[in-house]
Each structure stands twice: as C-alpha cells, then as structure tokens.
Amino acid sequence: MKRITLQIFLMAVFLTGTSFGQTNPNKENLDQDRAAVLRILESYKEALQNLTTEGTLELFAEDSEVFESGGVEGTYQHYLDHHIGPELGHFNSFRFSDYTIEVKVELPFAFTTESYVYTIGLKSENGGEGKTISRKGVATAILKKTDGEWKIVKMHNSSRNNGKN
C-alpha cells in the first residue's frame, strides 16, 4: 500500500511539472517580474525623451542585438556609439505619445511589444526653425533574467510615416 501511495504521489508531482528543489513562479512573482520589465523599458523611453543615453547601457545585455527599420545595428554598445547616441545630439525634443505596451513573462524570458507615435523636433542647421518629424512606431524586445536581473537581449524598432510631416 505504501508503495502504491508513493507511486501516485510521484506521478502527481511529475504530471504537475513540479519537482523537489524547483519552484514554479506564482502570480505574485510573475507580477514582480512584469513590473521589473516595465521599469527597464520605461527607463529606456525616459532617457530618449530626455535626449540622453546615460544609464541605458546597463539595461542591455553585453551581447545584445539591436535591429532598426530593416537594419542590423549590432550590439547596443555599437548602436549607442554609432547611431542613437550621435543622433540625439541633432534633436531639440523627442516625445512619445499614444504609447501602449504588452508584456509576456515566460521565465527566464520576457517578450514585449510597444506601439507609439514619436515626435522629434530637429535642431535647425542654419539658425531657422527646425523640422518636426512624427512617425508611428512599434518595438519588440526580448529580455532575459539572469542572476535575478532583467536585461534586454534583443530589440527591434520600426516606424512608418504618421501622415503629419
């Protein structure tokens, strides 16, 4: 009888996907992970709106990959040095509106989709009024939790004309 009880118990453990020494994420832990992922993306968005890249390198994994509008930008460090960093110096403003985000956590990964309208105020090259660009954008990101810390490992951004240029 004890052997049958033990077999039933072990089968129940196997079928529920749990095992000794392993913890399943509960709703509270998933909510905390979701909030942490949202903070990472919010920090990135706030930095861009403040026309800075300060503190953004720490949001990305060292071997991250960035893709933008059909181009492979390389690691975030490369993107920072050769694209977004220098580009921000030509802006008077960078604002997001109509922003929505979806986050799906499936440990150790999180998958996000952001949609928005961004409006960039460009600096004038000849002292006149600068140009304003408004575009609809979407971004997807994959984040990975390693040693309790979330980092962006892949990010893809694309945009199209918003009809307001």
UniProtKB/TrEMBL annotation:
Keywords: Signal
InterPro entries: DUF4440 (IPR027843), NTF2-like_dom_sf (IPR032710)
Coiled coil: none
Source superkingdom: Bacteria
Signal peptide: 1-21
Keyword Signal: yes
Keyword Membrane in annotation: no
Residue ranges of every copy of the DUF4440 domain listed in the record: 38-152
Name the record gives this protein: Nuclear transport factor 2 family protein
Organism: Flagellimonas alvinocaridis
